[in-house]
Amino acid sequence: MGKNYIESAKLIDKNVLYTPAEAMELAIKTSKAKFDETIELAVRLGVDPRHADQQVRGAVVLPHGTGKKVRVLVFAKGEKAKEAEAAGAEYVGAEEFIDKIQKENWFEFDVVVATPDMMGVVGRLGRVLGPKGLMPNPKSGTVTFDVARAVADIKAGKVEYRVDKTSIVHVPIGKRSFGTDKLAENFHTLMEAVIKAKPAAAKGQYVKSVVVSSTMGPGVKINPVKVLE
């Protein structure tokens, strides 16, 4: 571990579960890199993702965005393609982008949106987009005829959350430069969405642990009982 990490770790008491506000403040204090580090959240849930009825997945617009410029690729035709362009999508098209991705290994985009009628075509990219978490999905609002709204939400700071095979949800909630208040607001918005998405099949304690950290910094544990306070 680097010198900065070791110095930062001294500011955190590993035996303490902090309030969200305290944790955001510490995440900023322990962010020592010269660039504007991303503040990330890791939430361990009491679900078994091997079961279909215990999947946790969705999307939410963070009030202050993520601080990252998001490049959007939209698969649409006709009027819907024009709507996507007007909403600010960087790339809009159909089969030509399928070929570009398959043949040129082109991935200069961060989110993919598609109209339902295009999913038959986009489905051919399942093996390529799926492992990268880029496949459009109705649950995250990226398969829709309302492409203008989808693009606007993504540009405004919409993030997708999804439990991984270790039962953890990893989501960025902003940049160090946001400050404590904005990060805390983004944190609460995300946690409300994750808690609301609790599967009926999930038993026992749902939110088991919550840790916030900067890109290069140590983790700060948040009291899971106080995530909405």
From TrEMBL:
**Source domain of life:** Bacteria
> Gene3D superfamilies recorded for this chain?
3.30.190.20, 3.40.50.790
Q: Name one Pfam family in it.
A: Ribosomal_L1
Check the record and name the HAMAP family matching this protein. Answer: Ribosomal_uL1_B (MF_01318_B)
- Signal peptide stretch: none
* Oligomer and partners: Part of the 50S ribosomal subunit.
Q: Which UniProt keywords apply?
A: Repressor, Ribonucleoprotein, Ribosomal protein, RNA-binding, rRNA-binding, Translation regulation, tRNA-binding
Q: Which gene encodes it?
A: rplA
For biological process, the GO terms are: regulation of translation; translation
Q: Supply the name of the protein.
A: Large ribosomal subunit protein uL1
Its family remark reads: Belongs to the universal ribosomal protein uL1 family.
Report the protein's function: Binds directly to 23S rRNA. The L1 stalk is quite mobile in the ribosome, and is involved in E site tRNA release. Protein L1 is also a translational repressor protein, it controls the translation of the L11 operon by binding to its mRNA.
An example of a GO molecular function for this protein is:
rRNA binding
Please provide, in alphabetical order, the Gene Ontology terms of the cellular component aspect for this entry: large ribosomal subunit
